[in-house]
Amino acid sequence: MSGRNTSPANRVLVLNSGSSSVKYQLLDMADRSRLAVGLVERIGEESSRLVHTPADGERRERRAPMGDHGAALTAVAAELAADGMGLDSPRLAAIGHRVVHGGKRFTAPTVIDEEVLAEIERLVPVAPLHNPANLTGIRTARALNPELPQVAVFDTAFHTTMPEHASRYAIDVETADAHRVRRYGFHGTSHAYVSRETARLLGRDPAETNVIVLHLGNGASASAVRGGECADTSMGLTPLEGLVMGTRSGDIDPAVVFHLSRVAGMSTDEVDELLNKRSGLVGLCGDNDMREIVRRRDEGDARAKLAFDIYVHRLRKYIGAYTAVLGRVDAVAFTAGVGENSAPVRQAAIEGLEGLGLGLDTELNSERCDRARLVSPQYARVAVAVVPTDEELEIAAQTYALVRS
Ligand SMILES: Nc1ncnc2c1ncn2[C@@H]1O[C@H](COP(=O)(O)OP(=O)(O)O)[C@@H](O)[C@H]1O
Ligand SMILES: CC(=O)OP(=O)(O)O
Ligand SMILES: [Mg+2]
């Protein structure tokens, strides 16, 4: 089976397009190994940068302005081609795209055609930072190889099991339904993967395990997972609701919007921009990198301390709320950039929650480690876990399963 024409098409390219970045991985699904990983940052700026690392080669960095996600993906395709793994490679089975908003319709991974593209486009108003980037990525990939199957894996899909008492807002039913206003939830691929991995870490069946997952990246969300299914999650119609994030406010009184419009004369777009891009940690202290915030706080910076405290206070409220939603909690799992790396955030979030059965082993918590692990003491009733998320692997697995079936 080593001849060129007989090599199986078992590779999947995964594209995770954020508002100003693209993360990508090329995976071999025979052994789930990574053949290349990379990142394009600062898309839309003069200082765009691509970092590409093939599994068996040197890390390469390219700096050139990339105006949009199309230009970024074209540059990624060129890097892959230089390693003999271009988008026209017969070994490539499919491209899996992370698509942030799938609305109510997409409850599972879906092969992309014109109609699916149109539906993703229709959802742009409820995911303005994300769906346009996803669409550009998909269109460019299709132009580069029209024959290649493209699969959309939706952030919202995992949350479609939420019961209506969790997904419906308490507003007029007819108005809500006419405009598809409800809570959808996001980061679903991560919540699904991490809740399953947490059960595995505990040596338990995911179908009988209840987990609170705290996905703390730049965007951040919490979910209550009962027996492998989402019972509630903190993001809503859009990825703005819930936890305090890098640049997003999370929960606020909706009347803040009317107030800013009436009293400060701000337009709808201006308030939208304020809450999505100039709020959260950035709005509170000018920084959205948790490393920097903790460093400043430790040097006595009052604004950084307040930002940290507000971030953690919100997190603790959700831990309490989801303990009540689930009734019995087996584990709280921290994941994504902040969750996996910030021992001070984990400590402040769990400290004093003995009443909920939670505790932390401060030594285990401060160890650096990139594998899933427990950081709670043996005697704690509820386990606390740090579980690295792997959205790319999960997207590749779902994509590959779909194109093979
Ligand atoms: N060592 C670290 N300590 C604390 N926070 C970290 C560390 N590494 C990364 N982060 C945080 O993780 C965030 C990015 O998380 P990530 O999950 O990659 O987000 P996204 O996928 O939304 O880009 C950074 O903004 C930073 O705040
Ligand atoms: C949905 C969402 O917030 O995604 P990200 O964390 O990639 O911004
Ligand atoms: Mg992320």
Summarize the structure.
The protein is α/β, with parallel strands linked by helices and 405 residues long.
Overview of the molecule:
- With 405 residues, the chain is α/β, with parallel strands linked by helices.
- The protein has two domains: 151 residues, ATPase, nucleotide binding domain (Nucleotidyltransferase, domain 5, 2-Layer Sandwich), CATH 3.30.420.40; 188 residues, Nucleotidyltransferase, domain 5.
- An eight-stranded mixed β-sheet has the order 5-4-3-2-1-6-8-7, sandwiched between helices. Strands 11-10-9-12-14-13 form a six-stranded mixed β-sheet, sandwiched between helices.
- Strand 10 and strand 11 form a beta hairpin.
- The chain is globular.
- The two termini are 22 Å apart.
- It binds adenosine-5'-diphosphate (ADP), acetylphosphate and magnesium ion (MG).
- Adenosine-5'-diphosphate binds next to helix 10 and helix 12.
